[in-house]
Structure formats: structure tokens, C-alpha cells
Design a protein that fits this description.
Layout (H helix, E strand, L loop, with lengths): L2 H6 L4 H24 L67 H12 L13 H13 L10 H8 L15 E5 L4 E5 L4 E6 L7 E5 L6 E5 L5 E4 L2 E2 L3 E4 L2 E10 L2 E6 L12 E4 H10 L5 E5 L1
Parallel strand pairs: 1-12, 10-11
Antiparallel strand pairs: 1-2, 2-3, 4-5, 6-12, 7-9, 8-9, 9-10
Length: 298
Amino acid sequence: MRKSDCLTRNPSPKWTYHWRWVKLMTVATAMIAGVSCVPSIQPTVEKTAPVVTTSPPPEKKEVPEGATTPPPATPATQEVPLPPLPAPGPFSETKILQVGSRGEAVLALEKRLTQLRYDVGAVDGRYDQQTWQGVVAFQKYAKLKRTGTYTLETQKALHKATYPEGRHPGLGLPRIEIDIPRQILLFFDGKGLNRAIAVSTGTNRKYCEVSKKAGKQICGVAQTPRGRFRIQYRIPGWRESDLGKLYNPLYFNGGFAIHGAPSVPAYNASHGCVRISVASSKWFYDTVKNGTPVVVFD
């Protein structure tokens, strides 16, 4: 058949019927698809979301100006065993230590916490705010009173302590585990447990505040999302958000990030983000790569 025949010849009744049938089926399919995409008009019920077992589909979102996306993390297949801890020997009580304390007892405390992978910052014999964070992280993991003070109770627990253990080894290496009840983050690098960090997550309470950027009122529920995610993008340095300042934020679910904050109390106090100390956020930002799995669980 010549090209001109395709353009000028009238279609047969058989083909006319066929194309009418195809058009009818196309319209019907579109109507069904449209109905299935209509959101429910029933009122929603507020509840705590359970930990999901599958990764949510990636969301299309606008990445803030200044965000960077370094290469994703390369997963490892086998964890390198941690070095064996020395035998604790007999328990020896020391004096109560707290912020402002100095000396050999503080130095021994910092060495022991660092050995167990708790982040105390510089091991220098000075009980500063970062040492306080390390003590709180240990108290959280050991389910002790979260005082940040090296009490007799904490001394006894630290004397017989072992390495913190993750609960989601199936995610492989590297990975980030955020334990909401304990308010602690475990970071596993390509070899295994790297660091245990105290965090402060969402309060789970409703809030209404005036945006520090737009000047408009913002209301919501201060809840940290549970589930499995990945580090998606990051912004270096300080960033002014609607609800406050974030340092070195690493975003894992939309606007939710793990970020440094001037205040990281021993309890959950954020709008939904995962706060860590500014000191911890410096090495955390430089060490954790985009694509690193993040699991948040109760």
C-alpha cells in the first residue's frame, strides 16, 4: 500500500467498529483509575504509626538551596567483630562526678565510655557538656536515671557494661538505628558499631508556633516518623527553618532530619527532628553518606 492510500482511503466498517471498542475501553479504564485516586473524605484518626517493614517510595520534593548530595553509601556485607573488652575486675567506687569535675577519675570515665563507643568528645579529663552527653547516652541505653551525673548507680552499671547492640542487623552496613524509647542513636559504619549518641526526638504533642522565617503561625504534631528511610540530602552549617535553627542537617524523610542543636536534653523535646549535639553533628555530617539506611522504631 502506498503512503497516499493510508491517508486518503476510507476505513472499512470492521476497523471502524474496532476503534470504537478501543475508545470505549480506554474511557472506562480512565474512569476507574480516577475513582481509585480520589482521597477518602472520612475524618482521619490521630494515632502512632507502627514501624513499617518496607521502604517507602521515594518522594519528589524540592531540595532547599545549599543542599548537597554526595555519593551514596556503599553497603557492606559482613560486620567486623569489635575488640574484646578487658575483664572488669573488682568494682571500685569513685566520687560522684558531674559537669565541671576534672582529674584522673574523669579521664578514666571518658576512656571507658569511648571504649564502649559512646561519644564524649575529647578524652581530656574535663567533664564538659559533651562528656555529659556521653554519660546520658550510656544511662539511656542501660535504662538508668538520665541525670548526666556519674552517680554510684551509673558507676556500677558501667563497670559491667558491654557494647551497645543494634536491633536491625538485617539492614546491613552502614546503617543508623534510632531507638525512640531509649532516645539513643546507634551508628554502624562499614565495619560495625561506630558510635552511640544521645538524641532528643519529637514530643508527640500538638504545637502552634509562629514561623521564624515567614512570620505565619504553624501548627502540627511533634512526632518523629517511624519506619525505614535513607539519608537523602544535607545542608552544611547552620540553617534557619520555620521552627528553629538546625546545624548540619541530614534529611531522611522530607523535612525530618538528624541535626545538631544547642539544646539536646535527656528527654524528647523536638518538633519531630532527631537532635544531636553540635559537637557530634560535626563528625556525623562528615562521616555519614547519602543513601545510608535509617530505621526509627519504638
